[in-house]
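Task card 7
Instruction: Convert sequence to structure tokens.
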Amino acid sequence: MFLLIGLPFVGLAFWPEGVAWMAQKLGIQYNTLSLICVSVFLFLVVFELLTIVSVQDQKINALAQLVAILMEKQKLAEPEHRPEAQNDRESISNGERSKTSSLHHSFKSESSTRTLVK
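Output:
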């Protein structure tokens, strides 16, 4: 892609009056055509660089996922990030919920008993 972007500059090196000839044929000023050419060139360079960055980002994400999978297989991951730890946390929180639920239920039954005793 960079070779294609550089071709107009090679053409200008061999034919420096090309911009003036093109401006005359299009009926616009030399400065305006030069500005348009530079703008298009910068746009193409930015587009090419963004494409490269996007591809590299995809490769980095794939590599990070692969490393995470390998670390998990070798049990090198930190304990709080392992799936077993998440299951333990869920079972603990479920146990706390059942304790809280049973406490809430016993409190309700005690308050209803008190109401009946009055």
